[in-house]
Amino acid sequence: MTKSILNPRGFLSALAVGFAFSTSPLMAADLTVALAAEPTSMDPHYQNLTINNSMATQVYNALVLQDVNQKLIPGLAVSWTPVDDRTWEFKLRPGVKFHNGAAFAAEDVVATMKRAANVPNSPSSFATFIKGKTFEVINDLTLRVSTKKPYPFTPNDMSRIAIIDSAFVDATTEDFNTGKASFGTGPFTFSKWLPGDTLKLTRNEAYWGSAMEWDSVTVRPIGDGTTRAAALIAGDVDFIERVAPSDLPSLEKRSDVTIFKSVSNRLLYLTLHMTEEPIKPYVTDHDGKPIVSPFRDIRVRQAVSLAIHRQAIADRVMDGLSAPAGQFSPKGYIGYSASLSPDKYDPKRAKELLAEAGYKDGFKLTIHGPAGRYSNDTRILEAVAQMLSRIGIETSVETMPASVFFKRFSRGGPNKKPEFTVAMSGYANGSGEPSHPLRIFIHTKQKERGYGPGNRNGYSNAKVDKLIEDGRASMDIAVGEKAFIQATDIAMREYALVPIHHEIATWAARDGITYEHGALDSTFIHNVRAKK
Amino acid sequence: MQSVVVLFVMSLIVFSMINLVGDPVDMLVNPESLPDEIERVRRDFGLDQPVYIQYWKFLTGALSGDLGNSFVFGRPALTLMAERFPATLELAVSALIIAVMIGLPLGVYAGLRPDGLGARFIMGLSVLGISIPTFWLGLMMIILFSVILGWLPVSGRGETAVFLGIESSMFTLDGLKHLAMPATNLALFKIAMVMRLARAGTTEVMAQDFIRFARAKGLSSRRIVRAHLMPNILIPIVTVLGIEFGTLIAFATVTESIFAWPGLGKLVIDAIVNLDRPIVVAYLLFVVALFLVLNLVVDIIYAVLDPRVRLQGDEG
User: Fold this and answer.
1) Buried b vs exposed e over B12-43: b needs ≥16 C-beta within 10 Å?
2) Which CATH number applies to A37-186+202-209: 3.40.190.10, 3.90.950.20, 3.40.50.300, 3.40.50.2000?
3) Which pLDDT band holds residue A45 (cuts at 50, 70, 90)?
């Protein structure tokens, strides 16, 4: 990509370097944060959406909290233990008060669950985490949650639901947007929300956890990356998320800005259709005659993976903001298998594999993907297409807006089956539940049991299925995780998906601010702290 | 009557076209949800119904002033738009004022002395104004005025105040500071256009007999410009600006995105990306209605500016 003067992305660097902050030094008491997106509601139960959830954690607490790598840590519950195969007992934190002064007790949890599962007009409700569970109050500070079948992930599910005061069980979404009902137990209290403009929070003086340094926090949505960076340099804001790759070098050069980077759990992958079942033919021989998907053969799938030069994509397409991937989880994250590593670029071996599989002369292929959904998505696809063409798979690219892509990706083919032969998409484990990617993408599709809703390529391995199901039925998390890692090992070696890379998430702050970050690419304001 | 037909046809087109694109549930429902959640949302939002039934529901609602609830926000589309409208309106009005205040005098000046150095410089500027992309200029302005000089805030709307029952950032210093860059950015193209129109009008009118007569009568050039030139060049400018005002409101999207201005544009862009159909439909209908109204207003202003139009109206 050439950078002309008409392309201001990166032009910031040319001018901005060397100019000092123009406003007064940081006031330690107030923090202004610019985020790329804004919540659709301040009702913590309205929509299960990353930005909504991240904002909700500032005002509310769940029973169980997640740290920056989604490990479970005590929240409004101090401990949780299985009392039998189907029941978890939560010991609640004593002495916690809601922002309105009401005392927190087990009844509030029960009321919250009732509301969270039934918010009217919810575009994506939290019922998923609540359905099929019975809540039993033992005493004010003890709660039992039982399921019909053994289920080890009740604590994970409980980490997703923000607890509200039972007095507001019938409050409307509007009441939470205006602040009438917005009383949580979190580190900040809700002050004011002007959609599109600002969200104001104030420190909760009575917070049970470590107290925040900021008297107040202002959150502003600034969608444009360059504007966000400019706002930081100009001193309008103190902290930003998602630094545009082209602005990164100029920000890194400044002595008064700190950059934070971490390999996120957002994976970009290719899915290769691997059954004989006819779909729309995006794979043909060189004369354009449709052929049955060659990706049924593991050797062809492996050839695709070996043909992708992941490091080159990271260096040249992603400006260094990606880490080559060989599995769902980045290192240090739940479910990571130490025995898997990203495939090394080996076009020679890839060609041999194609020949062994009977495709010596290659074939023609169209690969699909969303445009503008993931960082540099179109350019990644184009790079992949060139790399595949180099081993003899004559590849062309077709991209479309995400809104069109996902419909066709899921059910654009005959009989509402997935349409594409090869497609690129992204995944990030939002729940922190280790079996999640396996249940969604790897397990054989069994709609009624909730298995394989994201399994669009027909991958099916009975042994893997059994490992996933056994792991999900074991109340011993350690036993479960072992099974999941084993399942991951098998599935990845069979190229159930072809991982490309994990995106690297970025944040930038003015001097005097530090940010605790991990595998999550969303931003949590309570992790923005004053430097000691 | 004609307007009603236009609105109806437009609603039909917009509604059917948008239903061809994607499926909102893919954009709304979190992929980690259980499969029955997708069915629940489809049912709650009426997306399980055939398109013609959805349209009928929309139409009957629209007739009673209800354009449906936003899928994303769960609130009435009209309410959401009404909340965002003042921000866009103040941006458009400011841009229009800037365009006229700067463009008109410069254009007239250039028209009066078409061969002067000043006129050439002004016309050169107008070419730049018309051809520089808004988003590029916006970012350049941010770099110059915010990052380097530190005079103006980078983005957002700033403080608002209520004056004559209207809440706007035009009434506070902080608000005006926030408004300055986006309004100028939005105005730039219009300044150039007003300049060119004013110049063209001026050269044309100045060559006419009644101006020569006025000169011969010994009127001062100031009086000629004010009393004889201005009314004559204003008519085409008002016509164009009337419609341009509509485009300022309807298509301020780029400027709003760059300066994170909490107006309609941002709401609509997000709605298109997320397939928030009710908002997109409501917005497009609003734009159609806006242009219908503006056309009417332009006709009325004509009559005020040009007595001939008024007289013909009286005779007819």
Assistant:
1) eebbeebbeebbbbbbbbbbbbbeebbebbbe
2) 3.40.190.10
3) very high
Q: Quick one: closest CA in B to A37, which residue?
A: B270
- Distance in angstroms (rounded) separating the CA atoms of residues A412 and A450: 21
3-state SS of chain B is CHHHHHHHHHHHHHHHHHCCCCCHHHHHCCCCCCHHHHHHHHHHCCCCCCHHHHHHHHHHHHHCCCCCECCCCCCEHHHHHHHHHHHHHHHHHHHHHHHHHHHHHHHHHHHHCCCCHHHHHHHHHHHHHHHCCHHHHHHHHHHHHHHHCCCCCCCCCCCCEEECCEEEHHHCHHHHHHHHHHHHHHHHHHHHHHHHHHHHHHHHHHCCHHHHHHHHHCCCHHHHHHHHHHHHHHHHHHHHHHHHHHHHHHCCHHHHHHCCCCCHHHHHHHHHHCCCHHHHHHHHHHHHHHHHHHHHHHHHHHHHHCHHHHHHHHHC
Contacts of residue A512, Cβ cutoff 8 Å, sequence gap at least 6: A26, A28, A530, A531
Q: pTM for the full model?
A: 0.88
Q: pLDDT tens digits for chain B (316 residues)? A: 778 888 889 889 988 888 888 889 888 888 888 878 888 999 999 888 888 898 998 989 888 888 899 999 999 999 999 988 989 999 999 999 999 999 999 998 888 888 888 888 888 888 888 888 888 888 889 889 988 888 888 888 877 777 766 677 777 888 888 999 999 999 988 999 999 899 888 888 888 888 888 888 888 888 888 888 888 888 888 888 888 888 888 878 889 988 989 899 889 988 988 899 999 999 999 989 988 898 888 888 878 877 776 655 454 3
pLDDT score, position B310: 62
Q: Which of A22, A220, A407 lies nearest to residue B150, judging by beta carbons?
A: A22
Q: What is the distance between the alpha carbons of residues B230 and B239, in angstroms, rounded to a whole number?
A: 14
Nearest to B259 among A22, A227, A430 (CB): A227
Asked whether A325 and A501 are in contact (CB, 8 A), the reply is yes
Residues of B in contact with A12 (CB under 8 A): 139, 143, 147
Alpha helices per DSSP H over A195-297: 225-233, 248-253
CATH of domain A265-502: 3.10.105.10
> Are A37-186+202-209 and A265-502 the same fold in CATH?
no
ipTM: 0.84
> H-helix or E-strand containing A51?
helix A50-59
Whether B33 sits inside 8 A of A124 (CB atoms) is yes
Q: Where are the domains of chain A?
A: 37-186+202-209, 265-502
Residue A284, beta-bridge partner list: A290, A364
Compare all CA atoms of chain B with the CA of A41 and give the residue at the minimum distance: B73
Cβ of residue B142 closer than 8 Å to a chain A Cβ: yes
**Option in A173, A403, A454 nearest B22 (CB):** A403
Considering CB atoms only, which of B37, B266, B275 is closest to A124?
B37
Q: Does B260 contact A227 at a Cβ distance shorter than 8 Å?
A: yes
Q: What is the pLDDT of residues B226-276, one digit of tens each?
A: 888 888 888 888 888 888 888 888 878 889 988 989 899 889 988 988 899
Q: How far apart are CA A165 and CA A180, in angstroms?
A: 12
pLDDT at A27: 47
Six token digits for residue A151: 């289920």
Over residues A325-373, the pLDDT tens digits come to: 999 999 988 889 999 999 999 999 999 999 999 999 999 999 999 998 9
- Cβ contacts below 8 Å, chain A against chain B, sum to 164
- Looking at beta carbons, which residues of chain B come within 8 Å of A406? 22-23, 26-27
Which residue type is seen at A126? F
